Hints:
Elements: E1 6-11, H1 19-33, E2 37-42, H2 44-47, H3 54-70, E3 79-82, H4 88-97, H5 102-106, H6 109-115, H7 124-138, E4 144-146, H8 152-168, E5 178-180, H9 215-224, H10 236-239, H11 243-256, H12 260-267, H13 272-298, H14 301-330
Parallel strand pairs: 1-2, 2-3, 4-5
The structure holds ligand 1.
Amino acid sequence: MDKNKLVFSGVQPTGNLHLGNYLGALKNFVTLQKQTKCIYCVVDLHAITVFQDPNELKNNILETTAGFLATGLDSKKSIIFNQSSVSGHAELAWIFNCIARVGWLNRMTQFKDKAGKDKEKASVGLYIYPNLMAADILLYKATHVPVGADQKQHLELCRDIAQKFNTDFKKNIFPIPEPLIQKNISRVMSLRDGTKKMSKSDESGYSRIDLKDSADDIIKKIKKAKSDSSFIPDNLKDLEKKPEALNLISIYSDLLEISLEQVINEVKGKDYSYLKNKLSEVLIEIICPIGKEIKNLLEDKNYLEKVLKEGTEKARILAVDNLKEVRNVVGFI
Ligand code: TYM
């Protein structure tokens, strides 16, 4: 166990967890839990940057917690809690609102994507969301942050904020956190459009595999996944010209933990239905037990609330200490 390494990551409770969350983030969370101290947060303050029905939000917080546990996180080893129950996140975010520059936030592509054409109508929270994300990480002085590639720009902003804070106050308060992004499959793409990432907000359920999907759902969705009628190429260069095919092969290779080359060797020259059958089998074997466990855990909401409460107590202790130091450096009495 590396004592100098502290991992932090967060997942928004805004609907079903999907295969992108699993391969891009959760799977890595579990691996890291075996190596070092980790803090995993259900980021409910982030969720409300877009309106959430309060009852649905409550359910989604518990469901995301269930997803953490069902994929293999252990609340005895890692700190698992929800963001809004530790007020230090919002407090440090305010300080970072005064450190980050407007120009830095204007460059955030995710705000542009999420706000869409009518930016004037987006919430202010959505705009300053990356400052809150920096506060999440730096409140604990985390050194490593496992995320999918879509979060890379936000992490660069977090590093800039840490650096500017340390420079402005001439004190080395914050570490400069390192992103941990999966090499093989940092961005799982939509099953319907290989140029778009798999996402909770995509209107078509056929674009993604949800962790709670049944075996039948998985077979149907993979069968309908976009591909073509030609044969599977025998090299990566040709495969890269077919983003949907490359996505299916990348998912298969990541689930089986074998290289892309090995998969290409197995499936080259065959038609896509061969690959799709194989992929469905592996997905059913790995994803269905997770979905079943999520459903089981949701039967006992008191237990899930207890996990969050215990995690909150542990997180709060770390947050209070660090925030005290920050307040002192800033000059608050
Ligand atoms: P969120 O809730 O959108 O996603 C949770 C995690 O899943 C990853 N992910 C993907 N990875 C690969 N392919 C995909 N299609 C895919 N879709 C989602 C995300 O990269 C993320 O790692 N802003 C963050 C939550 C957050 C956070 C933090 C993360 C808030 N504070 C501090 C790290 C540290 C978000 O919206 O993730």
